[in-house]
Amino acid sequence: MNRDELIEAGLEAVRAACKVCVRVQADLVNAGTLEKGDKSPVTVADFASQAVVCGILAERCPDLVVVGEEGSEELRTGEHRDLLGRVAVHAGMPAEEAIEAIDRGSFDPATAGDDDPRKDRYWALDPIDGTKGFLRGEQYAVALGLIEGGEVVGGVLGCPNLAVDGQDEPGVVLVAVKGAGAYRHPVEGTDHDPHHGRKIAVSERSVPGVLRVCESVESGHTKQDAAAEVVRMLGVTADPVRMDSQAKYAAVAMGVADAYLRLPTRPGYVERIWDHAAGVAVLEEAGGTVTDVDGRRLDFSKGRGLDNNRGVIATNGPCHAEVVAAVGRALG
Ligand SMILES: Nc1ncnc2c1ncn2[C@@H]1O[C@H](COP(=O)(O)OS(=O)(=O)O)[C@@H](OP(=O)(O)O)[C@H]1O
Ligand SMILES: [Mg+2]
Ligand SMILES: [Mg+2]
Ligand SMILES: [Mg+2]
């Protein structure tokens, strides 16, 4: 299968998973459990989303394996029968099938043998990125990246709660194939041709003082005080806008933000490839630039983690060098 065909399958899979997530999130709101900090409903959605994406990809492109965030270990123990049952209902498949689909996501390129052909091309999947945002009823993303020869060559980024100009209802799926641009599609829809959407592009802002910067809601995921210093150095008066998940990449890719800062909170934290692959694909094809805090390209060839990088800086491009320099000064 060529890249276009793979991304077409990916769009179908991410759309199906987004619909599952929307339903679970609506149930949470109705049940009033959102604020209780109860992680189990989120777990249901994470597992169901991974089962749906992996199930569709197994049918459409059986040769490709998936590097997914979730695994079925927890579901296979007897004490979680109830959880497994709910996952199966939401995924719309028998329990055994859901487990099998989820475990298609357990591939680890770093431990596969040198001559294992599955290492050449695989998916990176975050079935729900921004689980905390999902719990709060705010932003989250279903993120699927395509990696070939250790490089991101395409991606699908579903953001069911992201408001989009000119659209009455929130929700968008951004799609990119390397070299062919980035497009936005509605979450609903049956035409999965990646190029049939509306072309998206980053902003052209380069004057530092007017940059619109975004960052994680969770202070454990990014050094918010350092980011506040960065925007001050750039001459921006507003603090960074906080937003959960890879919806931040989407905001920069669609030109409604200019930079996304993810500054390491502690030495040694290794970013996961599924937290960035889809976002990087979409943003780069929309004209943007992504590096780590030291200005290095993200290295997706190391397995499940971005072992050679620390933090992430994603921008529209024109402001990148200036933002990287300010981050360097703020981190000391
Ligand atoms: N210490 C640390 N540093 C950086 N990143 C971390 C850290 N711990 C977790 N994670 C990952 O953050 C992912 C969520 O991304 P965001 O911070 O953008 O969203 S949110 O504010 O948590 O909603 C989140 O992805 P999900 O688990 O899919 O939600 C984690 O993989
Ligand atoms: Mg994530
Ligand atoms: Mg996740
Ligand atoms: Mg997680």
Detailed description of the structure:
- Its EC number is 3.1.3.7.
- With 332 residues, this protein is of the alpha+beta class.
- It has 2 domains: 3-199, 2-Layer Sandwich (Fructose-1,6-Bisphosphatase, Chain A, domain 1); 208-331, D-Maltodextrin-Binding Protein, domain 2.
- The chain is built from 10 helices and 12 strands.
- It has helices spanning 3-31, 40-60, 73-76, 81-91, 95-103, 131-136, 224-234, 247-253, 277-285, 320-331; strands at 65-68, 121-129, 141-148, 151-159, 172-177, 182-185, 198-199, 213-215, 241-242, 259-262, 289-291, 312-315.
- The strands form 2 sheets. A 7-stranded mixed sheet has the order 1-2-3-4-5-6-7, with helices on both faces. It has a 5-stranded mixed sheet with strand order 9-8-10-12-11, with helices on both faces.
- Strand 8, helix 7 (224-234) and strand 9 form a beta-alpha-beta unit.
- Helix 1 runs antiparallel to helix 2 (40-60).
- It is globular and about 55 Å long.
- The protein starts with a helix and ends with a helix.
- Mean pLDDT is 94; it is low at 32-37.
